[in-house]
Amino acid sequence: MPLLRQALGFAQLALVAAWNSKATQEDFYTFQEFYTDAQYGPDFGYYSTGRILHGGASQEDPTGAAYFNSYTTQPMSLSPFFGQLLCDRVVSMWISMGRPAPFFLMEFGGGTGMLARDILRHGRNAHEEFFAAARYVIGERSPALQAAQRQTAAEFVPSKLLVVDADARSASKVRQHLKVAVVRGVVLSNELLDEFDPVRLRLSWAGASPDQGRCKQCAAFREAHVLHRIDERALAQLLRRSEEAQVLGEAIRWEAKSLPCGLLDTQLLQRQVVERLSAALSTEELRRCSPMQLCCAALLLAVDGLMQDDHSSLQLGKLAASDQLLRRYRQQVARTNGTLLLSKHRYRQLRRLALQEGLGFEQELLMGSFGRFYSDEVYFALSPSRCRELGPWRNRHAARLAAAAKLRGATAPVYDRRNLGSTLQLKILVQPGHAEFVQEASALVDEGFMISMDYGADADALLWQALVHPNHEGIHIMDAREATSQCSSSYLACPGLQDITMTVDFTEAAEAGEAAGWRTAAYAPIFQLELAQEDEHLPPLASLLERAGGPRSVGLHAWYRHSGADAWASFKVLVQYRGVKRWSLGSSSLSWPLRKVPALAEAPDECWSNDLSKPALAALVARSVDLGSSFQKLLEDLRAMQEAAELQYAWQRQAYRDLHLAQLLADYWLYFARAGPRESCLAPSADLRAAWLQQVRSVAVARRLPEMHGEVMFNRVFSALAGNHTPPAEPYECLVSQMIASFC
Ligand SMILES: *[C@@H]1O[C@H](CO)[C@@H](O)[C@H](O)[C@H]1NC(C)=O
């Protein structure tokens, strides 16, 4: 404590405590709670109200139109081929474990049950012995989705498929349904990790950037909270049918004035800030929120706004002396005029009332034709329980955060023209669910694997995103519906009407896994699942294209051509294992960077000197030795920087496609080359080489790869691979030559 006091200053501590006035703070949403309510809460949650399912879905007909509203996950757009691919991989894991029976496949976030059905069907058709041993269990919390899963995979219920009430955060609950002493199997999840409720943090500092030690301390961080307001007109609409409208209305009005004062309620604050402000205000202004001396909600927002710009304004003397505060207070009074601040309890209550009136009414209420809800984010110091909860996370990431903060400190003066000494911050998203899930999974599985598939990146890349896009929040809104298109302006705009997701931090999933007894086997773009040659249990040409008999569906085109995705945050697979011997997803040299030790300022390894694992601008900056001056040089000519970043982005998208094609061609190559002795595979004669290349080309043409990618791209990649450049010009040449070397 003495240390903390020194670092912060006594007065500041008092205000930090004021921000944390615990009883009151719990009346308002942390961003995490808000997210949970918006996605899964009973009152308006996107999933729990069934809005994740398209229009027709209901309790009676849970599959409705049988597809998801917000996004098309891979197994759906690629059904049944993706399930087949995954099934073959799981069979290979099962064989590597000595074919145990029973063998459990335990899926979380099972959606409509399509992946389960496709995997089980393929098991039944192609792997008789495996199928006999297999038991599929879906842990699902939503009754609507449970029903959908039972219906989609009805042919396997109950002999092969069990749907139980559990979710990923309580995954070990599934164990009681398995009725075996030792659980052997695979924990599967697809697009689940991105759905874990996020804690939004800011690492703020003024002056020297926080070092590793500082990044382990809670005091270095502040956490986002969400404050909701409703305007009087909307409240009147909502309460118009309630018998207790008047009582309720008055209670809400009183709370709106009094509760936020609890957040500011300290003697110091009273004396120094409130009194000084009060003295400056007119009688008229002083009457606005009577009997309160000031409008506490407005003051709260004003102080928070001030702190965003000037961290040191937290010191009370400075705060009290600040004319800024008076100006901001007046702005906030005008801005919040006619609206009432709501506790989370009241917000839920009002959303329940709205839900009863139907989706149309809710949309009006959120988008404003008769008045509406408003939301603000404010940042408070970490509560003691949050501080404890994130301890292991801080330890895992402190070095990385300190490195990123240092970079931010070095580049901010040029990048966002901040004065030296002004407050700087890094926006950080933490999903504590990753650590909980791997812990629960390790209590569930004694021997086996964990396969997690999702859009995501390594922690270095995610921090780079925060560095080069300081205004980016890292949150994505997913909803295809026309009616809610106005909501897309902000993730705070339409809670419950849209899906909110995050880009997964796979480093955290892997490192938290290591702490829970899992080891990391592989991390790569999902298309690495297609490579067959290193896995004797897969069909020799295992690609989706092969299974589908050519590029016949929109889903397949998207899979190979990667339309619309950022390469660095692409769809990935992470394989972890415990209690069994390592199993390989493919050449470890094909794995993407997933470093425990941060490597912000260097290429991850020799194949990545031009890096597609980082955001485009980050890859440009990181290429240079001196990051600060490299940034500065880029910034001297903004247009040139923009052009360079756009070129890099275009290159990355193409490089990602090239890599997928190159891996496929290399897989074909190995199919022919591995038929003979290893020496000739590694160093074939010119004749052999020409013959294999000819065969690879004719397989590729038969599978219509040139047609799908265009002759130009196909020929370019094919000749580069055939040409054996030294040194390799593109990452795919480098990666694929390592792949061939290790699998010949
Ligand atoms: C608040 O709104 C009312 C009604 O629209 C208006 O008369 C009043 O001037 C506003 N007050 C402030 C401080 O903006």
Automatic annotation (TrEMBL):
Gene Ontology biological process terms in this record: methylation
EC number(s) recorded for this UniProt protein: 2.1.1.320
Predominant subcellular localization, coarse grouping: mitochondrion
The entry's keywords: Methyltransferase, Mitochondrion, Signal, Transferase
Enzymatic class: transferase
Catalytic activity: L-arginyl-[protein] + 2 S-adenosyl-L-methionine = N(omega),N(omega)'-dimethyl-L-arginyl-[protein] + 2 S-adenosyl-L-homocysteine + 2 H(+)
Any one Pfam family match given in the protein's UniProt record, by short name: Methyltransf_28
GO MF term set: protein-arginine omega-N symmetric methyltransferase activity
Compartments where located: Mitochondrion
Cellular component, GO annotation: mitochondrion
Entry similarity comment: Belongs to the NDUFAF7 family.
PANTHER family: PROTEIN ARGININE METHYLTRANSFERASE NDUFAF7, MITOCHONDRIAL (PTHR12049:SF7)
Name assigned to this protein: type II protein arginine methyltransferase
Organism: Effrenium voratum
Lineage: Eukaryota, Sar, Alveolata, Dinophyceae, Suessiales
